[in-house]
Amino acid sequence: MKQKQMKKYPVILLLLIAAVSAMFTGGCSSRIETPVPEADSTIVFPPKNPAGVSADIILYRKLDKKTGTRIDEGNRFTIHLQRSLHALILLKNRETYSGRLMMFHIDWIDPNGKSLYRKRIDILPGDTMSELHSSILITPQRRQPGRYSIRLYFFRELIAEKIFYLQDEPLIIPLPDEELAANLILYRTVSKKNGKRIGEGTAFTMKKKRSVRALVVLQNRYAFDDRTLKLHLKWIDPDGKTFYRKRITLRPEDTTSVIRSSVSASSEKRVPGNYSLQLRLNNKLIAEKRFILKPAKAKSKRKGKH
Amino acid sequence: MKNIVKPSGNGAFGKQRFDYIDQFRGFVGILMLMGHSSYYFNAIWLHLDPLDPLFPDWAQFALRYAGYLCAPGFLMMNGAMVWWSFHRRIVKGTPEGTARWHLIQRGLFLILVQMTWVNSSWGGFRTFHLWHFGVISSIGISMILLTAIIKQRWQIRLLIAVIILLVHPLLLRIAYNPEIIWQEVLMQTFVTAGKFNKYPVLPWFSLAVLGSVMATGWLEVWKTDKKRIVMSLAIAATAFALAIIVRMGRGYGNIFPFSGFGSWSFFLDQKYPPSLFMNLWFFASVVVGVAIFIALGKIIPKWLVVFSIPGKVPLFFYAVHLAVLGIFVKRTGWFYREGGVTETFIGVAVMMVVMLPLCVWFFGVKRRSKNYFIRMI
Predict the structure, then answer these.
(1) Nearest to B141, CA basis, from B189, B207, B76
(2) Longest dimension (CA), chain B
């Protein structure tokens, strides 16, 4: 009798373990776990059900106020004062859930793998929204250069991810042979003896009568010798305001490929902080360089020996 | 109380031990170790917010979700043992007041352990972090509260637990300002979760009470293992059914929304503090777990020693493994959050090799010792 009872236990046990395993691990994933990269570089975890919700992620710098078009779409962006990075998420098969609540999370991940900003978006039943938006600041105070990502979760499951890079280097708009580009060099002064630049770099100490000078070397200038180029040099302060603007018009007969500009670095005119210099062609950013103005160190008063 | 059954198995405390309780408690302790190993080795914790969890794949989900059994398991086993300990003492002739005072002291000791040892061990004792409650203090407070009703019939205790479970979702609607300390302490100690405490007492106390109710069945009323298994499964099935009804209602008793029946999000309602669905679901899961260990004890009793060992000294196992991980991983930064699921399991295996001999040693010390604090652990 006892042996018969003993024989029953494995059956009961198998059933129990199957039930418990189903409970704790069977929470079915609705996704295929092998990611699929899409043409726009969004990594998608496709739904097992072809009618399931999926998404594309588009990153861009800003919207054109007049036309509403997205400016600087891509996955490489420059860290800049008062600059944001925007994400537009286009939902596919959203109608599968029409009339039901949908829960999304957008998670921005930094180069160390840490979440830097998370946003939960619930689309309520009856809402026909099929686009999600989120943005982060990409200012030097908040971001470091590196590999970032934005992840989209649907009901807590990862459904799409996009990798992007923030860079500290001056942005040079893509350089096909026939496009104008520029190299910006910042320096303190020029040697009177040999004409060489002194104090090249991106950090300058503020002093009376001191300046920050810029040398702009245009590349591919020869490709534009048949038209008038309207260039602007903008010096931007830590508040993001342009404190000095220089307009340069290069006519077809003008073969100049070097532009110079300078601003004061005296503590009477400037405050310490992060500045930048931008070169724009027809209001399109061609090149940019960030620099820092640091306050001069206070002179310490030495006590004389008695 | 004349009908209290003889404990099964041959635990070292003789008549005072129930093998399947020890084993299940050990199993829960190992799950807890797995959760902590993940916390220290698994890179998902760089961005996983336990209050609002998101998962990149099934393995990470399953790893985290398995740990959800720990707190309900500990609370229910604690409630069961409080009930057993109290009645055993009464049967032995200990005055009621003395039996209660013993349990209150243990509860206070657990709060002390939380605030001194546990809080600081997370960071490897780099800083002394007193001002925080957690699961151990929640168990301690539950223990103290349980002494007030431990003599009641199981029907009364069940009613109390059910009332708390039903009222708790309503209490969660109380608005409070966590910037005001007395409001933060009051609300987070008893009702909701936050920086001060992720394990508010009310929902967890109700599970401890349910543990004491189940103990009445396991340790007193149901005389055979078959009866224990059958009754446990029947009760668990009822609780699962109730949980599913609550969840599918998508309203009262739910906190996080879900996409559909059987999906991750269906199972993954809020843990801090648990929703009514989660309480019902994990009450049922713990009851099934105990039934499994009763059955396993009949088939492969010797294999279960790996669970019995930590299950006999659960507080020691918890406090020491956490401190070891805190010191050797968090404090030194050695492989801290650089791995994944595999590294988590390697961490568990290594820690088990370290912890099992320590638990055997401490169990011996505890049996021989008459030191007040040693016996409290």
Answers:
(1) B189
(2) 57
Per-residue pLDDT of chain A (306 residues; tens, 9 = 90+): 455 555 666 676 777 677 666 665 555 677 787 788 777 778 888 888 888 899 999 999 988 888 888 988 888 898 887 789 999 999 999 888 888 899 999 999 999 999 999 999 999 998 888 999 999 999 888 888 899 999 999 999 999 999 999 987 554 444 445 577 788 889 998 887 777 788 888 889 898 888 999 988 887 776 776 778 888 999 999 888 899 999 888 887 777 778 889 999 988 889 998 999 999 887 788 888 999 998 887 654 443 333
The pair of three-digit structure tokens given for residue B3, joined into one six-digit string:
């009908």
Mutate to test the interface with B, among A12, A48, A49 (most CBs of B within 10 A): A12
Among candidate residues A164, A163, A118, A168, the one with its CA nearest the CA of residue A142: A168
What domains are there in chain A, each with its CATH number? 36-167 (2.60.40.1930), 181-294 (2.60.40.1930)
Do the Cβ atoms of A238 and A271 come closer than 8 Å? Answer: yes
Establish if B117 touches chain A: CB-CB under 8 angstroms.
no
Element (H or E) spanning B135, and its range? helix B135-149
Chain A residues inside the 8 Å CB shell of B262: 26-28
Contact present, B205 and B145 (Cβ < 8 Å): yes
The amino acid occupying position B286 is V
| Cα B93 from chain centroid (whole Å) | 30
Q: DSSP of chain A, one letter per residue?
A: -HHHHHHHHHHHHHHHHHHHHHHHH-SB--B-SS-EE-TTSEEE--BSSTTS-EEEEEEESEE-TTT--EES-SSEEE--TT-EEEEEEEEESGGGGTTS-EEEEEEEE-TTS-EEEEEEEEEPTT----EEEEEEE--TTT--SEEEEEEEEETTEEEEEEEEEEE-SPP-----TTS-EEEEEEESEE-TTT--EES-SSEEE--TT-EEEEEEEEESGGGGTTS-EEEEEEEE-TTS-EEEEEEEEE-TT----EEEEEEE--TTT--SEEEEEEEEETTEEEEEEEEEEEPPPPPPPPPPP-
pTM of the model: 0.76
Cβ within 8 Å of A, B 336-375: 337
CB contact under 8 A, A101 and B62: no
Q: Which of A1, A29, A32, A49 to mutate to test the interface with B (most CBs of B within 10 A)?
A: A29
Question: Does any CB of chain A come closer than 8 Å to the CB of residue B47?
Answer: yes
Q: How far apart are the C-alpha atoms of A234 and A229, rounded to whole Å?
A: 16
Cβ neighbours around A103 below 10 Å, total:
17
